[in-house]
Amino acid sequence: MEYKVLYRKYRPDCFKNIIGQDYTIKMLQNAIIHNQISHAYLFTGPRGTGKTSTAKVFAKTINCQHIENGEACGKCSSCLSFDSSPDIIEIDAASNNGVDDIRELINNVKIAPTEGKYKIYIIDEVHMMTSSAFNALLLTLEEPPSHAIFIMATTNVESVPITILSRCQRFNFRKFSIDDLKKQISYICEQESIEIDEDAINEIAYLSEGGMRDALSLLDQLSSSHEKITVDKILSNYGSISTKFIKDLISNIEANNVEAIEKSIEDLQNSSSDYKIFIKKLVQELSHIAIELKQNSNSSGLDYSQVKGIIFELNECMNKININVNPFLLIELILLDHMASNTSEIVTLNNTSKNKENVVIKSETESVVSISQIEEKPEETNDNLKEKEEYKHYFEELSKIRINNCFAGAKKDVLIEYQKIWQDLKQGLDLKPDILSLILDSNIVASSSDYCILTSRLSSTVNLINSKLDDLSQEVENFFSKKLHFICLSEDEWVKEKQIYVTHLKNKEPYAIISEESIENLKPKAQSDLEFVATNVFSRDKIELI
Fold first, then answer.
1. What angle do CA 102, 13, 158 make, to 5 degrees?
2. pTM over 0.70
3. Cα–Cα distances in angstroms (integers) from residue 477 to residues 427, 431, 473, 486, 515, in the given order
4. Contact 406, 514 (CB under 8 A)
5. What sign results for the dihedral spanned by CA atoms 155, 156, 160, 166?
6. What is the pLDDT of residue 42?
7. Dist CA 169 CA 436 (whole Å)
8. Which residues of the chain fall below pLDDT 70?
């Protein structure tokens, strides 16, 4: 016997077997019961939500000879011959979308049905039709023969002309809920004698993203090994991430455990996990924490603004990330950046005489809390804070100087030349991989002969580029044989600086070149480039040089 894939084998053949679309089914059945059948229907919604299946069931029921409470009897000649009925015409608009195809359809519409009461045209992916094809179909939809019914389905209703939409009854199909998916997966596993654990069912339901066809296709593939389906098998083969992993990661963020976070992200990358699934699951879990924090501010070690910031930046990362940039590196920086900038600063002091740790916790809203004898080394905390401020002050002054010097000698022809070189750099293989991955998401927006201002959409990328300014200059010099000085700004920062520049031009206030040597005395001593940037992105107390 020929094997039939699960989503085809368990495709519903009557209204009562269609799940998750209760409103639509009720309306269609009422139309049949009260004999108020329209000449044109449009089913819209995401893939795998039952649009085509519902269209076939609707068509079968309409032509049934013994309809019972809005359901096809399944026994009459029309029901039994439905799959081969000449009165049911299925058209794939993705491959039959031309005006000639539609004209042929229109000519056939005039022919009366052979067996059933109606001649029913099911047009799948109708949004793929050309403008000319839509125009040809328009008149038929306006004045169709009484025996013709059109049922159209689309995943992209925005591409369907309003003139078509206004002539159809529209039904929106929603994604299946997790519970609906789990229930159907469990039922099919029971019918097919497939061994599967509960966590695996949950994971399949999650990965299908509300699509029943996707869920059953995944189940079909997993069951082909004829072994018990476990969540570990799904995680290892489909790039998914366990809920426990997500919760452990959030716990490490709460505990300021930088090393554990770095290890977790590294494990994800090495396991070839899908970063999009990771972001979705992390955002989902963080959103639950955000709601709990609104109800009880002490329900988590994180605060609401911190959770909100991570969610928004991860979402931005998901929408704008360049596929050539290492996404896990950006995700890690987002997590560490928010952890460093929003959480309490923790300084650990070693008490050698008593062989125990003393901890000082300082936050924006709380006074300093001391555990044990803090007065033994108070100067270490002050030194750390002073050192951190020195790093920050130096970088701010360096940024001001480079922006100023770029504007002082800015020329349009130089900008055009450097932008072309920048594109060549991004498309070539001449740079080191770590530098190349950084600049792929950046652009030159202003330049003089010696200075360039870069912008990037992601703040994490801005921080990364600014952390490697000297390396970037050296790489560009090797490629271009010219020393250039860079500074990277976020798009919002660039808008502000550009406005300042325009104001200077209008007021005829010239820029004067400032030597970077003027701030050499501000640069902290015995400071490596890596240490300098790390202290600008993270807290000095969280850095250990080895």
1. 40
2. no
3. 17, 11, 6, 12, 20
4. no
5. positive
6. 94
7. 53
8. 1-2, 97, 239, 320-325, 339-388, 428-431, 524-546
Q: What is the pLDDT of residue 429?
A: 56
- String of DSSP letters for 354-377: TTEEEEEEE-SSS--EE-S-GGGS
Residue with the two structure tokens 């839509």: 134
Each residue's pLDDT tens digit, 334-363: 888 776 444 334 333 333 333 434 444 333
Q: In 10 A of CB 80, how many CB atoms?
A: 12
pLDDT in tens, 465-518: 888 888 888 888 888 888 899 999 988 889 899 888 888 888 888 888 898 888
d(CA 368, CA 357): 16
**3-state DSSP call for residue 44?**
strand
Query: For residues 371 and 317, what is the distance between their CA atoms, to the nearest angstrom?
Result: 40
The 3-class SS string of 463-522 reads: HHHHCCHHHHHHHHHHHHCCCCEEEEEEHHHHHHHHHHHHHHHHCCCCCCCCCHHHHHHH
Residue type for position 288:
H
Q: Give the residue among 7, 38, 19, 28 at the shortest CA–CA distance from 71.
A: 28
* Helix (H) or strand (E) segment spanning residue 455: strand 451-456
User: Quick one: CA torsion of 80, 82, 86, 90, rounded to 10 degrees?
Assistant: -170
- Residue 299 confidence (pLDDT): 75
Q: What local confidence, expressed as pLDDT, does residue 342 receive?
A: 42
Secondary structure E strands in 9-84: 40-44
| 112 conformational bin, left if phi > 0, alpha if psi -120 to 50, beta if neither | beta
CB 198 within 8 A of CB 204: no
**Residue 387 and residue 541: Cα distance in Å, rounded?**
10
pLDDT at 485: 93
Tokens of 403: 């922006």
